[in-house]
Amino acid sequence: MTVLKELLFFLVYYFAVNKYILERKQVAMKYLLKGAAVAAVVLIVLMAINMFCNMHDIHLDQTVTGTVSAVCAMLFYHGLIRNDNSKDDRNRK
Hints:
The protein starts with a helix and ends with a helix. Helix content is about 90%, strand content about 0%. α1 (about 1-55) runs antiparallel to α2. By secondary structure, the chain is mostly helical.
């Protein structure tokens, strides 16, 4: 009887780990990497804009620049996630 209990426990544990825990970690890591990539791209573009404006003696407002760059990063990230989610939905059907 104990061997059957251990076998049942092992099957449930194996299914739970593979199906729920590992898939969620992969999805979370995928979203984290996409967020880091979006942040890096936005920072590089913002640095290029600031360098161009500083060379031409144009002074940018820090509050407005920071707010606009954060909003652009969120919209860009949301677009990446939405495209990914729609692909996943099509694959599941």
